Structures are given as structure tokens and as C-alpha cells.
């Protein structure tokens, strides 16, 4: 219950990772996925409160490269859409 | 401490390549684990030397490398586990790794970690520790960490995790002897490596302990597995662990019920899924350990080397041209150096065959030797230079770290057709030759991606189809030869993409595999690893695919030469009937004529196409024989080409429309035997080459009939 309220309060600040521009910094709030994709994201370091930065995008703006836990990781935009973040300055 | 003298002495006592210990003698078994990009291969090579045994894990096509060496008269076996990020049940490699540890119970696991990226790499180490086998951690790439100003207190880290750590540099061999020494001592229980799993926090621990209470009600189950591990995996809803309970635990219903209730309670407490809770606890634990033992340099040291290169190589607009340029260089290197060498091998075998024809008496034995065996062996070996060069190029791409970038750059274009960016590599190589092309599909980690790519790669115009198509184009479309040739080349690509998409929508539909992928830092490839890799792949090719290709060439030779035509009155073969016409293949061609006639083909084309299954370039030489072109001249390929072209052009039975149908048929129909043998080797089952031969034949036939019938209807006949 408590948890749900919190997300609602900050709703306007919560974005999808796929919506961020190149160069944008973010902090992960939640991952809206299950099964293999969630596990892979978890294994490579996508966890709550983890910070990261979008480094670049490929020719057709997909996939994207980002930096997380000191590593460069690439994601398809469709996968980035599953990740809720807040933008950092 | 590593004293040079000590190292020397140690090396002298280490002997590589001991095959089997004497019966009854003890053997220490060490498994090597680690993330991809942890430098695991270089450590494995440094520990074991050159004599490695390559096989598969039982029942699956995951490659298993092992080696036995002797150290101070003790036998030590190393088993290389697949490189993975985690030990979940989602990929074959992960299940293979953990089943190996659970069932084979190695004496110790050496987990190799990238010291510059310890957090992510410890995440895997902790999961191995949970399996209940003692661990030694190799803090690899210590030199890079030093250069970056990362300081790791390995003793404190060791005491926190209860595991001994050794600093190593795989590329120079630094620390390898100490690593081996410590691993042996741990295996012999002289050094303690803690089997306690990490602390997951109060709530998870409570649930975990409660679950263990239920689990240990089955004694025999308890004796087989680490209870810590099973409990954690059940809380994570790991499907493989659930299977194990269902199959092997007496009280499976109770266990699963208890696990379900505990999960619900945890999920309510954390407002999060159990798998995520446990994963995050792992990271939290690691974070704590790292905070106490690793000191990072003050603020960032500017842009690093990798990022400098990536700014150009992964630039939005330069990325694709740079990738195509690199592929062009590898393609050129492979085929422009490889083809002359292949020709040389081919000429050598032709000469040998001619020599034996002269020396041996005429008869079936001579024919079997020259046309069957020597031809077959030659056919196997001609691919060798190309395979060696191809793997030189691919190892270079993989070892430098560029391969992941290639996937990044190309992914979108391939993803539209349900494929992965890396599929470009096997496609491109297949335009030279599908045999190495199919081998190169190993760059695809996911099995479904790999199967789809392998199934469609032979649709490309390869080096053997090209001369046949060129000859037909020259014979029937002399005015637009180049244009038509390149359109057919393009047709190969388009068909491959479309059929891949169809496969994805039908046979291989379902959840797409995630693209989530690390872009590792660029590293200088090690010459030794590259050469070892080339050697492994080539010897594997000869041993596994070679035997099948040889057997199949003999069968095709037999079909084309037997039965012999009856002797004429004078005791010689009747020269008016080419023996091919009389053979099984000839009869098959004639028998098929009513059916292939729908596409406008006569029996001669039918026989040539049957022969073409052996190798596509054989289509021309078979036509040559059927048209009675003197065999002495046929030693000169260009001459046969010219003569066949002339015969075809002047044969009133053939039209440009039929030629078009024929070219499309040749592009699509059954891949050559060498390719099929390779598909079997790479995918591990005969099912795949049969499916491939079947679907390509069907599609080719439908296309050829469609073109011919429609064209005739429109009056192009």
C-alpha cells in the first residue's frame, strides 16, 4: 500500500528510460517486466536506485548504449521502455 | 609472492598433456567459471597449455573444453564452464554450468573476475558459492586495474567472503602458478574456502531457513544437493529447481506449497517480486564488500581509450560504413588469400587422381580411389584455408571486443526480420561459402537466432553457385548479363530475409530473446589465443564435418557411375550412351522428367541438379559430360564452361524463361553436402539438415514452376 502511494506522488517525474535523450542521466525506479528479460536486466545491474547515463544511439535511434555500474551496456528501445526512471541533473 | 626462481621451478614440474592418470590414482578436478569478457580463456590456456580436449556437455551442443595436466605428480583436470553473467535457468549455458557443478561436484571452482569491474563479476561468483563447492577467486586483469588506479585489498575481500583471492594477469601469466597452488590446496582442504552463502538479510533468511526445514524431510534429496542453493532458487521461482523438486523430492507438493507461501509473504513485505528481491540483496551485499576493500581513483580520469574509439566507431552516421568496411576487409582477406590456396589443394588432388589413373589398372577400385575417395578428401581439404583465415578474422573481432559493437550497429535492420544484428556476419561469409558461414553463426549466443540464421544462410549466392549462374546468364541473357547476375545475387539476400521472417513467425515464434548486452572495453587480442582458436576450429571441421562430406561424396560418385552401361559387341563401352545416362542418377533424372518439366527442365538438367547436391560447381561439369564434351578437354574448366554455354544456347528445348527458372532453382534448392554436414555438426541433430534440404527443395520447385508457368502464360516462353 505504502509503496503504491509513493509512486503516485512522484508520477510526473517518473519517465520511461526509452523517452530520455542522449546524454541524460537517470535513476532507476522500477522494472516493469517479468521472465527472462527482467532476469537479464537484473544480472547486468538494472536494480532499484541504480544510477546511469545514456551515452549514444544507433543509426535508426535504436538500440541505445548506456553506462551503468561502470560498464557500457546496449539495450533495444523496446527493452528500455520497460524501465521506469527519474531524470537526474 | 612470486619469485622468478620459484616460478621457474614450478613450471618445470608442470607437465602438459598427460592424458589419463593410472587407474586408482586420485585426480583433482577444477572447474573454471567466469563472466564473458573476464579473460577466462586466457587463464584456461595459461593453466593447461596447448593440449585441450574439446567435446560437448552430455546431451547438448554446448562446447566443453577440458585438459589434464600433472603438477608435482598430482593429476589435475580442468573443465572450462561456459561464460555467463548469472546462473538462472533461462539459458542452456547457465543450466549446463550449474548442473555440472551439482552433479559432477568438482573439487574446487576457480572463478575468474575482471578486477576493473568487480561488482558485476562478484555477482556470478556468489551464485557459484551457493552451489556448495569451494571457490578460489582470480582477480584477473590486475594490470589494467592498476593502470586505472583501482586498488583492491584482496586479503580483506577474501576474509569478508570467506574465499581466497589471487591477483592474476591472464595475458602475461602473472599469478597463474600461485592460483594453481592455492586451488590445489583448497581442493586438498589445506586452505579453507567458505561454503556459507551470503547473508540475504533477515526476512529472506527467515524464509530460506523455513524452507530448508521442509526440504530436509527427504534425506536422499538432502544428500544430493546444497540445501541453501535449492531453497534460494525455489524462492527465486527458478523453473529448473522446481523441476528438480517435482522429479526428485518425496514431498514435492508440500515443498512447493511452502515455497509459494513464503514467496507471497516476502513479496508483500517488499512490494516487489521475489526474484528481484534476491537479486537486489546480492548486489547490496557485494556493494558492502566492495566499499570496504576497493578504492577507486578520485574523480574520473577523463575519457578512456574505449570511449575515444567508440566515439568514431559507434558514431550514429559512421557506424554502419565502418562496420561494412571491416567486414569487407575480412571477406577479402578470407577469400582472396583463401581461394588461391584452395585452388592449389584442389590441383594437387586432381594431379594425384590423374597419377593414380595412369598407374593403377582400370576398374572399380581405381574409380573408387580417384573419383570417390581422392575427390572427397580433396573436397574436404579445399575448405581448410578459408576456414583458417575466417577464424583468424572472427577471433580478431571477438577478442578485440568489436563483435558486440557490430551487433549494436546492425541490430535494427535485422530485428525487423526477427533476427539479431550479429546475423550479418554468417550471411556475409556465406556469400563466399556457406560452410564457414554456418560455422561463423557461433557469434550468435542464442540458439533460436542461430538456428534461423543457419537455416537461411545457404540461400546466398556462394562462390560455387556464382560460376553456374554466370554461365547461364551469359548463355541466355548476353545483353544484360551483369544486371541480371547482380539481381540474382540480391535475390539470394531478399529470399534469406523473407524466409527468416517466416521461420520466426512459425517454427520459431514466441518470446524474442533480450538484446541486453555488454559492450566490453577494447582489448588487444593475444596471438596465442587466436592461433589456438584457429587450430581448434579447423581440426574440429576436419574430424566432424570431414568424415560426413567424404562419405557423401562417395555415395554421389556411386550414383553417377553405377550401374555401368552394357558392353558393346567389341568389348568396349558403347560411346553413344554416356555412362552417366545409364547410371542411377541418370535414371532418376529421367524418372523425374515429367515432374520437373513443369519448370521447363528436361532430364539432363535433372541429372545435373542431382549431381549439384554434391557441390554446386559440379552442375556445369555434369552438363558437360551429358553433352558428350570430350573428357580430355574437361580438365580445363574455362573450356567446359564455354562449350556448355554454347550447347545450351543452341538447344531448341531451352528458352531464356527456362534459364531464369533454372537459375532461381539453383539459388534456392538443397545446399551442398558439405553445408548440410556442417549444419548437422553445428546444430547437433540430423533433423536440421533434413528440414533445410526439404524446405529449400520445396521452395525452389514452387518458385521455378511459378516462374516458368506464369512466363509461358504471358507468352515469354
Tell me what the structure shows.
The complex is a heterodimer of chains A (89) and B (717). Chain A has 89 residues and is an alpha+beta fold. Chain A is built from 3 helices and 6 strands. Chain A has a 6-stranded antiparallel beta sheet. Chain A is globular. With 717 residues, chain B is an alpha/beta fold. Among the domains of chain B are: 4-187, P-loop containing nucleotide triphosphate hydrolases (Rossmann fold); 202-295, Helix Hairpins, CATH 1.10.287. In chain B, strands 1, 2, 3, 4, 5, 6, 7 and 9 form an 8-stranded mixed beta sheet that branches. In chain B, strands 8-10 form a two-stranded antiparallel sheet. In chain B, strand 3 and strand 4 form a beta hairpin. Chain B is elongated, with a radius of gyration of 30 Å. Mean pLDDT of chain B is 86; it is low at 1-12. At the A-B interface, helix 1, helix 2 and strand 5 of A face helix 4, helix 13, helix 18 and strand 11 of B. Strand 5 of chain A pairs antiparallel with strand 11 (517-519) of chain B, so a sheet runs across the interface.
Average pLDDT of chain A works out at 87
Number of domains of chain A: 1
The helical percent of chain B reads: 55-70%
Name the pair of protein chains with the most residues at their interface, and give those residue counts. Answer: A-B, 35 and 41 residues
Radius of gyration of chain A: 13 Å
Which residues of chain B sit in consecutive blocks of at least 5 with pLDDT less than 50?
1-12
- The named CATH superfamily of the domain at 4-187 in chain B: P-loop containing nucleotide triphosphate hydrolases
| Major β-sheet profile of chain B | 8 strands, mixed
User: Which structural class should the secondary elements of chain B be placed in?
Assistant: alpha/beta
> How many helices of chain B?
32
The helix-and-strand class of chain A reads: alpha+beta
Secondary structure tally: strands of chain B: 11
End-to-end distance of chain A: 30 Å
CATH architecture identity of chain A: Roll
Amino acid at each position: 500500500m505504502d509503496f503504491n502511494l509513493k509512486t503516485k506522488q512522484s508520477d510526473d517525474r517518473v519517465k520511461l528510460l526509452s523517452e530520455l535523450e542522449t546524454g541524460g542521466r537517470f535513476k532507476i525506479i522500477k522494472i516493469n517486466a517479468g521472465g527472462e528479460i527482467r532476469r537479464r536486466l537484473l544480472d547486468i545491474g538494472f536494480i532499484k536506485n541504480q544510477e546511469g547515463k545514456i551515452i549514444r544511439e544507433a543509426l535508426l535511434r535504436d538500440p541505445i548504449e548506456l553506462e551503468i555500474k561502470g560498464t557500457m551496456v546496449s539495450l533495444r528501445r523496446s527493452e528500455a521502455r520497460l524501465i521506469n526512471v527519474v531524470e537526474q541533473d | 609472492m612470486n619469485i622468478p626462481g620459484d616460478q621457474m621451478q614450478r613450471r618445470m614440474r608442470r607437465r602438459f598433456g598427460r592424458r589419463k592418470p593410472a587407474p586408482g590414482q586420485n585426480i583433482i578436478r577444477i572447474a573454471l567459471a567466469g563472466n564473458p569478457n573476464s579473460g577466462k580463456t586466457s587463464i584456461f590456456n595459461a593453466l593447461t597449455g596447448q593440449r585441450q580436449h574439446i567435446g560437448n556437455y552430455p546431451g547438448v551442443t554446448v562446447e566443453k573444453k577440458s585438459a589434464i595436466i600433472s603438477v608435482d605428480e598430482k593429476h589435475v583436470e580442468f573443465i572450462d564452464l561456459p561464460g555467463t553473467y548469472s546462473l538462472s535457468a533461462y539459458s542452456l549455458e547457465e543450466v549446463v554450468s550449474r548442473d555440472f557443478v551439482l552433479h559432477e561436484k568438482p573439487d574446487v571452482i576457480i572463478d575468474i573476475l575482471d578486477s576493473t569491474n568487480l561488482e558485476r563479476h562478484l555477482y556470478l561468483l556468489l551464485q557459484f558459492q551457493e552451489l556448495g563447492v569451494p571457490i578460489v577467486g582470480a582477480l584477473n586483469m590486475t594490470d589494467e586495474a592498476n593502470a586505472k588506479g583501482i586498488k583492491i585489498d584482496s586479503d580483506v575481500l577474501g576474509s569478508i567472503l570467506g574465499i581466497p583471492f589471487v591477483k592474476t594477469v591472464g595475458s602475461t601469466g602473472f599469478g597463474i602458478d600461485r592460483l594453481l597452488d592455492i586451488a590445489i590446496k583448497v581442493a586438498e582442504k589445506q586452505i579453507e574456502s567458505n561454503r556459507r552463502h551470503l547473508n540475504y538479510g533477515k526476512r529472506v533468511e527467515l524464509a530460506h531457513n523455513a524452507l530448508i526445514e521442509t526440504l530436509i524431510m527427504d534425506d536422499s534429496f538432502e544428500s544430493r544437493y546444497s540445501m541453501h542453493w535449492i531453497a534460494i532458487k525455489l524462492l527465486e521461482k527458478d523453473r529448473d529447481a522446481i523441476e528438480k523438486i517435482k522429479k526428485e523430492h518425496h514431498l514435492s507438493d508440500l515443498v512447493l506449497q511452502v515455497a509459494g507461501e513464503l514467496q507471497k509473504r516476502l513479496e508483500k513485505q517488499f512490494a516487489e517480486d521475489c526474484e528481484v528481491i534476491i537479486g537486489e540483496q546480492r548486489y547490496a551485499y557485494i556493494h558492502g564488500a566492495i566499499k570496504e576493500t576497493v578504492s577507486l581513483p578520485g574523480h574520473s580520469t577523463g575519457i578512456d581509450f574505449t570511449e575515444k574509439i567508440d566515439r568514431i566507431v559507434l558514431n550514429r552516421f559512421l557506424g554502419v560504413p565502418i562496420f561494412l568496411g571491416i567486414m569487407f576487409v575480412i571477406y577479402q582477406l578470407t577469400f582472396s588469400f583463401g581461394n588461391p590456396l584452395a585452388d592449389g589443394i584442389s590441383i594437387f588432388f586432381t594431379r594425384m587422381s590423374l597419377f593414380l589413373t595412369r598407374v593403377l589398372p582400370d576398374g572399380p577400385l581405381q574409380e573408387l580411389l580417384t573419383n570417390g575417395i581422392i575427390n572427397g578428401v580433396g573436397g574436404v581439404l579445399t575448405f581448410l584455408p578459408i576456414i583458417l583465415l575466417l577464424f583468424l578474422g572472427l577471433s580478431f573481432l571477438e577478442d578485440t571486443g568489436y563483435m558486440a559493437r557490430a551487433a549494436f550497429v546492425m541490430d535494427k535492420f535485422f530485428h525487423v526480420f526477427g533476427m539479431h544484428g550479429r546475423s550479418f556476419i554468417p550471411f556475409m561469409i556465406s556469400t563466399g561459402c556457406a560452410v564457414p558461414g554456418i560455422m561463423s553463426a557461433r557469434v550468435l549466443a542464442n540458439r533460436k537466432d542461430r538456428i534461423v540464421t543457419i537455416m537461411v544462410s545457404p540461400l546466398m549466392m556462394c562462390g560455387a553457385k556464382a560460376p553456374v549462374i554466370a554461365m547461364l546468364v551469359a548463355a541466355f541473357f548476353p545483353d544484360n548479363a551483369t544486371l541480371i547476375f547482380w539481381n540474382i545475387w540480391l535475390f539470394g539476400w531478399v529470399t534469406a530475409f523473407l524466409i527468416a521472417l517466416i521461420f520466426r513467425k512459425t517454427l520459431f515464434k514466441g518470446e524474442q530473446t533480450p538484446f541486453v548486452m555488454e559492450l566490453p572495453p577494447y582489448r588487444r587480442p593475444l596471438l596465442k589465443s587466436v592461433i589456438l582458436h584457429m587450430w581448434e576450429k579447423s581440426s574440429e571441421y576436419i574430424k566432424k564435418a570431414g568424415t560426413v562430406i567424404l562419405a557423401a561424396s562417395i555415395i554421389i560418385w556411386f550414383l553417377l557411375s553405377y550401374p555401368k552401361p552394357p558392353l558393346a559387341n567389341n568389348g568396349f563401352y558403347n560411346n553413344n550412351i554416356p555412362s552417366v545416362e545409364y547410371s542411377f542418377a541418370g535414371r532418376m533424372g529421367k524418372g523425374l522428367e515429367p515432374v520437373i518439366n513443369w519448370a521447363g527442365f528436361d532430364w539432363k538438367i535433372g541429372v545435373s541438379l542431382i549431381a549439384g547436391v554434391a557441390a554446386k560447381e559440379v552442375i556445369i561439369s555434369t552438363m558437360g559430360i551429358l553433352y558428350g564434351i570430350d573428357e580430355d578437354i574437361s580438365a580445363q574448366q574455362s573450356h567446359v564452361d564455354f562449350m556448355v554455354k554454347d550447347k545450351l544456347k543452341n538447344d531448341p528445348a531451352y528458352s531464356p524463361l527456362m534459364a531464369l527458372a533454372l537459375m532461381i532453382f539453383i539459388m534456392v534448392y538443397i545446399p551442398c553436402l558439405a553445408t548440410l554436414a556442417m549444419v548437422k555438426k553445428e546444430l547437433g541433430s540430423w533433423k536440421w539438415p533434413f528440414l533445410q534440404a526439404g524446405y529449400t527443395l520445396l521452395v525452389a520447385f514452387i518458385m521455378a514452376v511459378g516462374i516458368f508457368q506464369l512466363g509461358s502464360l504471358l507468352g515469354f516462353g
